[in-house]
Design brief:
Four Helix Bundle (Hemerythrin (Met), subunit A); 2 domains
């Protein structure tokens, strides 16, 4: 039972680290804070413009603009030029839908046909967010909002059930376990196996497909 508690705690720790990574990339289960957009529309353009207009971001961009090319890698030099281009596009009064599509593609290119999910950066070519991680610019991922909501809903409910199971096992450790509490032990075991069974289906559904 102690090993179950340790492994369950390890699972929750990994899940917490995974959630933090999602939040750092702007992936949230709700729209107001999420940096994932379904399509490059005016809302997306406004989000990119707002991000580039943050005071701290303005300072970072100014420092990047003033950095000599000799101190940048070839990829960073190319990315800096593309970044200048999208900054001009998002503030242009004659902004068109095609321009926003270009902006989205420069920030995080989507996988091309035949590329699959084994691209250089998790299934897509190198974008501005990959070259300069501190940018954290909004990205366009078709179906991304629905995926994020589904992911957090399913994994969140499962994590809650794991936590409940660990609490139950911790309570059982306070008792002297014997035949009188056989029913309690059996029910706790059945509950934990149910949680295991759910994860067998969730893992391939969320991480392999």
């Amino acid at each position: 039972m102690l090993s179950t508690l340790l492994l369950g705690g390890l699972f929750l720790g990994i899940k917490g680290y995974e959630y933090k990574a999602k939040f750092d990339h702007g992936i949230y289960p709700w729209s107001p804070r999420s940096r994932v957009f379904e399509k490059p529309d005016l809302y997306y353009g406004s989000a990119v413009r707002a991000r580039l207009g943050e005071p701290a971001m303005i300072d970072r961009l100014k420092a990047l603009d003033e950095t000599p090319e000799s101190k940048l890698t070839p990829d960073e030099v190319s990315a800096r030029r593309r970044l200048v281009k999208i900054r001009q596009l998002v503030i242009s009064p004659d902004q068109q839908a095609f321009d926003l599509a270009v902006v989205a593609d420069q920030i995080m290119p989507l996988p091309t046909e035949g590329q699959g999910s084994h691209g250089e950066h998790g299934g897509h070519s190198s974008g501005l967010n990959d070259t300069f991680p501190w940018l954290k610019l909004p990205a366009v991922i078709p179906g991304g909002t629905m995926w994020a909501s589904t992911y957090f809903l399913l994994t969140g409910f499962h994590a809650v059930h794991v936590l409940v199971g660990l609490i139950v096992f911790s309570i059982l450790l306070l008792f002297t376990l014997g035949s009188k509490r056989a029913g309690m032990i059996e029910n706790a075991g059945l509950y934990w196996h149910f949680v295991d069974l759910v994860w067998i289906f969730l893992f391939p559904l969320l991480y392999l497909f």
